[in-house]
Design goal:
- The protein has 3 domains: 1-195, no CATH class; 197-402, no CATH class; 404-518, no CATH class.
- The protein has helices spanning 2-20, 23-48, 63-84, 87-114, 120-140, 143-166, 173-195, 204-226, 235-261, 265-273, 277-306, 315-335, 337-359, 366-374, 388-401, 423-442, 454-474, 484-500, 505-518.
- The chain has 519 residues and is mainly α.
């Protein structure tokens, strides 16, 4: 299974390399080769218990698929913005690609360094790949860009040491690279933009995303340190939690956002949300869907109390939420992508805040949330945090957040790139859902080395092709320019990756589909 997963990842890397064919795509290829070898060292460390931190069990290290996401995103973003003639974002794509490669190399060197005896061949490969990448960076990046890449690496190192210690068994090494690398990059971007504020420069919704992500992470770190010295389950601690949340929100996050957008954040947000009648209709519709999702949770818990034998929700039951999230995102993508962007940021902040309430047992809802959500746990929620619903939201939202709007003057990219914002809907909302439902109910032929079925994968590919046809009918901004063969190949590759990967598919699959469609 690991070898097939590696072949599929190499397929994506080679496809991007063939489409781009420059020094950075060659570097990505070198990085993929060395990550393939180092992945086996990480897997061996996890099996023998020799890793520095406790990682999620029942999965391989995932180093190869995770190592390639950020570099490939940077490469395809650079290529798209170069074609559009937007120099600023072309340079930004180069910084993203360089940062991703350096973070992946750091994890590789870490694994090689703690493996005993020292693997000579892997060391040589890592050294060659590292030399190629550093040589390319030396001749491609300015001094300020090199400093920016090193800043992200420094933040990543410290953030990894803190969060992997505080949250054992929540991530595999690959997932930690993706999540903590992303948070490190966001934090560095926020610091950089806060120090160089120019009025009228930058979109307020981008600043809103940066501040929201950094704000909830800092909030979690603050309360984790605080509750080492206090019992978080008492009423006094709970009152202190709510009070300090308000203080940090109104005293730190709001002024920070005000400095970036030069207007009152609350007034800006209210004006933005209720700007048009379409937005009002969408907000009412989304509120109804949110209430429906809550209804599913309460109904399933009521069934659990009456059926003592049933302790966990079935796969099909968990996929109800995938259907609800598709029904949420598709109208937003068709009618108002900016509103969807902001609403997804608000949802992420609310989800993470509620997870803090559950994890710290904050009264009055902490214990209730623990009871309600325990029904929907699966083997991937082996750590102290429940992250699968947050990963689902991220998987649907990241293609919307990472879409290079400035490099798409008409609001959409040409050809297959027009489907980039729909990557989460196609890969997770349609493909993963249909594969799970049909595979678990009708599947008989299993892919070698996995529990996934041939029938589930084929049905998922077929369902995504139908979804693309429906998008073409209902979204007039999408024009594929006869790039149907590339779309079919992209969907097929990602669906096969879903069958073979042991990483969090809700996070990985949309990003790989986005890379393929942007390439």
């Amino acid at each position: 299974a690991v070898l097939v997963e590696a072949v599929l990842v190499f397929g994506v890397v080679l496809a991007v390399h063939a489409a781009v064919w420059d020094r950075f795509s060659w570097c990505a290829l070198a990085l993929a080769v060395q990550a393939f070898y180092v992945q086996f060292k990480w897997d061996r460390l996890l099996q023998l218990g020799g890793a520095v931190f406790q990682f999620r069990g029942a999965a391989n290290s995932g180093l190869l698929p995770a190592s390639m996401v950020i570099p490939l995103l940077g490469v395809v973003m650079k290529e798209r913005c170069q074609a559009a003639g937007i120099v600023y974002f072309e340079r930004f794509g180069i910084v993203v690609a360089s940062t991703g490669m350096l973070l992946a190399l750091f994890l590789s060197v870490l694994a090689v360094g703690i493996t005993k005896p020292v693997p000579t061949n892997t060391c040589i490969l890592t050294g060659i790949a590292g030399s190629v990448i550093i040589y390319t960076m030396k001749h491609s990046l300015t001094v300020s860009e090199v400093i920016e890449v090193l800043e992200v690496l420094l933040i990543f190192v410290y953030l990894s040491m803190i969060l992997l210690y505080l949250l054992p068994r929540c991530f595999t090494p690959g997932e930690a690279l993706l999540v903590l690398g992303g948070v490190s990059f966001v934090l560095n971007q926020l610091i950089k933009r806060s120090l160089n504020v120019i009025e009228g420069r930058g979109d307020p919704i981008d600043f809103f995303l940066l501040v929201a992500v950094v704000g909830v992470v800092l909030l979690g770190l603050f309360f984790t340190v605080l509750f080492i010295f206090m019992d978080s389950g008492t009423w006094i601690s709970s009152m202190f939690f709510h009070m300090m949340t308000a203080v940090l929100g109104l005293g730190v996050i709001m002024p920070w956002l005000y400095r970036l957008i030069h207007r009152n954040p609350l007034f800006w947000l209210l004006q933005f949300l209720f700007q048009t009648q379409t937005r009002l209709y969408l907000l009412v519709y989304w509120s109804f869907l949110a209430a429906s999702a809550c209804g599913v949770v309460f109904y399933q818990n009521a069934k659990r109390s009456s059926e003592s034998k049933k302790h966990q929700a079935s796969t099909i039951t968990r996929k109800y939420f995938h259907f609800i999230v598709v029904a949420t995102y598709v109208p937003g993508l068709i009618y108002d992508r900016q509103l969807l962007y902001v609403a997804a940021v608000l949802c992420l902040a609310v989800f993470i805040f509620l997870e803090y309430v559950r994890y710290f047992r904050i009264k009055p809802f902490g214990q209730t949330l623990r009871h309600l959500l325990s029904l929907f746990l699966d083997e991937r929620d082996s750590g102290p945090l429940i992250l699968t619903h947050i990963y689902l939201l991220l998987g649907m939202s990241l293609p919307v957040w990472l879409f290079p709007r400035s490099c798409a003057p008409k609001g959409t990219l040409p050809g297959a790139g027009a489907l980039v914002p729909y990557s989460g809907v196609l890969a997770v909302g349609v493909g993963d859902t249909i594969a799970s439902v049909f595979g678990s109910t009708m599947g008989e032929i299993k892919w070698p080395g996995t529990k996934k079925t041939f029938e589930g994968t084929m049905t998922a590919i077929f369902a995504q092709i139908i979804a693309v046809a429906l998008i073409l009918i209902f979204d007039s901004s999408v024009n594929l320019n006869s790039s149907y063969a590339w779309i079919l190949a992209s969907v097929s590759l990602v669906s096969l990756l879903e069958a073979y990967t042991t990483q969090i598919d809700n996070l990985l699959l949309p990003l790989y589909l986005q890379i393929m469609l942007m390439a």
